User: What shape does this take?
Amino acid sequence: AQSVTQLGSHVSVSEGALVLLRCNYSSSVPPYLFWYVQYPNQGLQLLLKYTSAATLVKGINGFEAEFNKSQTSFHLRKPSVHISDTAEYFCAVKGGSQGNLIFGKGTKLSVKP
Amino acid sequence: EAGVAQSPRYKIIEKRQSVAFWCNPISGHATLYWYQQILGQGPKLLIQFQNNGVVDDSQLPKDRFSAERLKGVDSTLKIQPAKLEDSAVYLCASSMEGFLYNEQFFGPGTRLTVL
Assistant: This one.
């Protein structure tokens, strides 16, 4: 069965700093992986997705993620964060016979001025 | 393009009462999902519809939860009777059919508080 683990429930960085949010997956088949962002009192918005093409995936708002098969990881990073990036970030993998999403527990990112 | 609509946005009820949530997916999206997001956790799938048929309800507590999708468009999720542990945000999402990795578009959610 597929699953994802997000390391670190809270991350706090200063504006302009590099941020790395960690995600490790478990999958018996080639995975389809996603990163979603959730702003306060809003639904989830897709940042980027990996679908077995390039291992470095670029998403919206300057975010990117690298798929590493040997380390079963799909870490999200942004070279220079902005205060508006303060939100909760979820890693997810397509799982099950019907392709529903299986989410990690999320990482709350706080960007300080 | 209009997004996924949900109502109400907030609901407060007492335990043992019933409650219903409504979702209108993006026009043309055949697949509709209901997720439960408990505070501090990621969303968990409750039920998945393909058009108006159920394709996965393995994690739906069927003794108290029910859902329907009439005419393959709008959907309603009901809880009867509610328990304290049902306090959560209920998210509706929709996607096009045909591709395994199709993006799911999420609504703003309904925040349920059971007292």
About this structure: DSSP finds no helices and eleven strands in chain A. Chain A touches chain B at residues 9, 32, 36, 41-46, 49, 51, 90, 92, 94, 96-106 (CB under 8 Å). Residues 63 and 102 of chain A are 21 Å apart (CA to CA).
